[in-house]
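The record is given unchanged here:
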Amino acid sequence: MDSKEFIAELSKRVGRPEADVEALVEGLSALLKEECGQLGGIAIPGFGKFQGRKTLERIVVDEQSGKRVLYPPKIEMEFVQSSILKARLAEKGGRNE
């Protein structure tokens, strides 16, 4: 599913115009990017928590050539699902919907 299909499906489910849904999704995306980029987190009750995680820079040695490569630090977004979401997914997984 690409972005346009996602927006169209979400628009249909919530009963709002695609332009409105696209603006809301872009706003949420910007918020997540900003907050997680600062190593913060955003919790959504009943859904889960998005949080930023930083990996430090590291030196990796290529086994074949013996060259050393320095990888810069990076920030990744991590999602931890809530127990409520996990239970709902388990329920739906048991049924063929």
